[in-house]
Amino acid sequence: MRLKLLICSTAAVMAAALLPATAADKLTVYTYESFTADWGSGPQVEKAFEAECGCDLEFVSVADGVALLNRLKLEGNSTKADIVLGLDTNLTTEAKATGLFAPHGIDLDNVNVPGGWSDDVFVPFDYGYFAVIYNSEKIANPPKSLAELVALPGETKLAIQDPRTSTPGLGLVLWLRSVYGDEATKAWSDLKDTILTVTPGWSEAYGLFTNGEAEMVLSYTTSPAYHMIAEGSDKYRAASFAEGHYMQIEVTGTTVKGAGNDLSSKFLSFMTGPGFQDVIPETNWMFPAGKTSKPLNPDFDKLVKPAKTLLFSADEVAANRKAWVDEWLNVMGH
Amino acid sequence: MAERDGTLKPAIGESRIRSKPSGLWPGRLALGFLIVLAGGAFGGLVSEASGDWLRALSFLDARTLAIARFTLWQAVLSTALSIIPALLVTRALSRHQFAGRELLLRLFAIPQALPAIVVALGVLALFGRAGFLAEPFSAISGGRWPGVYGLSGILIAHVFFNLPLSVRLFSQSLQSIPDDNWRLASQLGMGSLAQWRLIEWPVLRASLPGVAGLVFMLCVTSFTIVLTLGGGPAATTLEVAIYQALRFDFDPVGAVTLTLLQLGLTIGIVSLLMLLGGRFADSAEISVVNRRYGSPGIGEALLNLAVLAIASAFVLAPMAAVVVAGLKADLARLAGETAVLRATITSLVLAFAAALLATGLSYSLVSTRNRLAKTGHRQHRRTLLERSCDQGAGLILVVPPIVLGAGWFVLARHFGDVFAIAPVMVVTVNAAMAMPFVVRTIRPAYDAAAERHDRLAASLGIIGYSRLSLVVWPVLRQPLMTGFLFAMALSLGDLGVIALFGSDAVQTLPYLLLAKLGAYRTDDAAGLALLLGLLTFALMMVAGRTRDRA
């Protein structure tokens, strides 16, 4: 009779596994992983917004910014996302072309990014500058320019992100493009020896860096602020590059589905105010793009200030992204 | 044994067995399942590409060919690096009778059940630039240790899996040498080299294509290892490229081209190996130890000792590294995390369901095959159904999990939320993945039981559920348990399908591990790897014990 018992218990286990979950009045936000991590901005933002709206804010996270757009394309009109948080200006034209985004319709008075902002679909929530972060205990003479980085003999290693999934990864492709133009391919093949590995998202690469696997990592000029403020250490520093630093403005948009949800525009307005912006500098470790209630921690003043800001227009990136990434793939794949 | 039937008088119930076509439905059902699983995947792929054949063809560019070339190249290297040392280790093992011999063979069985992601972490913890061996290696080589990302990491991990497997398979072939040969060799005073040349090598050479073929296929279809240790576009296999085409580029048409290329490759290799006489369904059960006459000289003994020591160290070290790195993690906090608990429960439930499905389907195939074999032998021909029942379980060797997953992924996209069908995909594909093993475990026992009891049972009118509970269950309980547990261990550690379908909503332990690895929580990842490794190891041990008692 033990067979009977086995059959019954199996049926019970299978039934329990299929119990449905219930949904409440809520706003679904797609974002990238480092945003929703325990130490990221997500948990605090969630708490603050839920207290304000009396609703349920749910984050769904994917590896990184570019993957976010891919996920949305994949789901198309059946997406559950009301809000997509974490694209950047390099992707906005392409994102608009999917027809999956609706105009935000909110007041942009609070928004404050270098160069100003006037887009009717996407709202910025932070910005920063890409930089190579190095371990000063292992590297005494960091590269002082992109040219010096590219010319490194390959003894010290750099961890980078895949431009097909990650906005910093794409940022580096654009950075080299904006400095070297058509010579970028040559620069990549020179840089190749120095690259330890290519990771899908920012977090993996940064993990390899703090873990000691790589001496350098592609991140942001603001990353050392984390180590100074949270860890009281200045051993990780940003290398200042003479050619200038490529800029990233991270943005949020409402999906067509989200346009039907009142909470969407509430969230976007909330995002440009202190409830959200106060959290950004010391959890997402970027510069706030809206109104904060207090000045930045003085340690932010010690950070590298780019000599020159580099940025392609959204249309330029949209027109060339595929070709430039393919070019990168061809260099890295051989 | 079936040929003996002809000499026996037909028993009363035998004609009933033969004339009951309704008894074939379990096998048909199981095959139907496999056909739907593979057919759906193909349907998805072909319908996706059909609108765009030209663009699909345009993916056969220099880069894709470079990926295909790398796929084959790393597999060739991995196979050579596994097989040649395995021959040395097998011989060293077979030349000596010592207490640890059985233990060593058991040690060599462990890698097969370890999740690839756990092994990848072990290899990194050991050979990475910040790994345990980085400093000694840097000191030896004089420069900074370059780490293992890329081809070297892939090769180390593949050899870790396949060297022990090959040793077990080769050892099994050596067992088949009759005792008489050894006695004769000893009487003729054959030296070590002569014994190798005249006795051992011919047997090993005969099993070489089979073993090499299996290892080669496992390396061609390797996914997790290449994903985690490949380190970027330079070291990408077709499997990883398919995954990237779907999850990175969101390019179903590109994925279809890559998938068809991969299929062409695997089918081509399998056909070639079958022509060469390779057998894919070999099991690595090692039975009694042969008696040996005479003992090797001191020089050879020392050499053998060295070979065995190096091989054991190579197999033990990554596992030890996983344990050491895992113990550094805050295990108590990890165990209390809701995400970890949820993932553990999800993993166990999915693996349980997959193992159950795998066991049920395998049982259906085995029982139907047995029935057909009885009728078929009299008619001296094998029907398509019988042959399918025989070979069907091996489907997954030709159509890798990623391909099945990719096909259903592009298909499901048209019908709503792709990520909602994740549990179904994980269960079905993992079940199909475990079937070859489960079939191997239960078939001998089933055939023997059927041979012994079927006629009596049929004459007493014991059919259906009573036959199952009175005749089959008592005899098959243990092999079924063994197969079930191994299937569960396999699907517990799988990161093929879940990598495609995983999301916040459905996370298994390997997926969570990959995510932790990605959230610069390397300590957590190490702790999870230890947990996952222990889980599969425990299942293996229980499976081994039920087998021993059987």
Structure description:
The complex is a heterodimer of chains A (334) and B (550). With 334 residues, chain A is of the alpha/beta class. Chain A contains 13 helices and twelve strands. In chain A, strands 1, 2, 3, 4, 5, 6, 7, 8, 9, 10, 11 and 12 form a twelve-stranded mixed beta sheet that branches. In chain A, helix 7 crosses helix 13. The longest helix of chain A is centred in the C-terminal third of the chain and has 19 residues. In chain A, 51% of the residues are buried. With 550 residues, chain B is mostly helical. The longest helix of chain B is centred in the middle third of the chain and has 42 residues. At the A-B interface, helix 1, strand 2, helix 4, strand 7 and helix 9 of A face helix 4, helix 17, helix 22 and helix 24 of B.
Search tags:
heterodimer, A: 334 residues, alpha/beta, 13 helices, B: 550 residues, mainly alpha, globular
In short:
The complex is a heterodimer of chains A (334) and B (550). By secondary structure, chain A is of the alpha/beta class.
Write the layout of secondary structure elements.
The complex is a heterodimer of chains A (334) and B (550).
Chain A: H1 2-17, E1 26-32, H2 33-36, H3 42-53, E2 56-62, H4 65-75, E3 83-88, H5 92-97, E4 101-102, E5 122-135, H6 146-150, E6 158-161, H7 167-180, H8 184-191, E7 195-199, H9 202-210, E8 216-220, H10 223-231, E9 236-239, E10 245-255, H11 262-271, H12 274-277, E11 287-288, E12 309-310, H13 314-332
Parallel strand pairs in A: 1-2, 1-3, 6-7, 6-8, 10-12
Antiparallel strand pairs in A: 3-10, 4-10, 5-8, 5-9, 5-10, 5-11
Helix pairs in contact in A: 7-13
Chain B: H1 14-18, H2 25-50, H3 53-58, H4 62-94, H5 100-107, H6 110-113, H7 116-127, H8 134-141, H9 151-175, H10 179-187, H11 192-220, H12 224-229, H13 238-247, H14 252-275, H15 298-328, H16 331-336, H17 338-379, H18 384-391, H19 395-398, H20 401-412, H21 422-459, H22 464-492, H23 497-501, H24 509-518, H25 522-549
Helix pairs in contact in B: 2-14, 2-17, 2-20, 4-9, 4-11, 4-15, 7-9, 7-15, 9-11, 11-14, 13-14, 14-20, 15-25, 17-18, 17-21, 17-22, 17-24, 20-21, 21-22, 22-25, 24-25
